[in-house]
Amino acid sequence: QVQLVESGGGLVQAGGSLRLFCTGSGRAFSSNTIGWFRQAPGKEREFVSAITRNGDNTYYADSVKGRFTISRDNVKNTVALQMNSLKPEDTAVYYCALRTNTVGKINLGYGYWGQGTQVTVSS
Q1: Contact at 8 Å (CB) between 111 and 99?
Q2: DSSP state of 58
Q3: Would you state the torsion angle of the CA atoms of residues 77, 28, 30, 8, taken in this order, to the nearest 10 degrees?
């Protein structure tokens, strides 16, 4: 069984930074792609970023490219999402997820999800 726990969310002013963490339990965490998604009020959940198991490949949504950086530490079983130059439209609940099905696009196939952490960016 895989458990994912997000942390690091909070309230920040526009232009500021936050660093989110996803901590996982179980051997599967270090053996699979981990993704970050977000859901704003009244909107569908959207893909933000992902990193493959060895960290060799990273992926970003166009809306965060150049501002967010994903990284992982498989010894500590953590994946971090460094978010810089935050905008009010980045406000959302951020979820990390473990990819269990590698068929299809990188934003698909996530079978385990955390409970989410709130990020609020004030203007």
Answers
A1: yes
A2: E
A3: -40
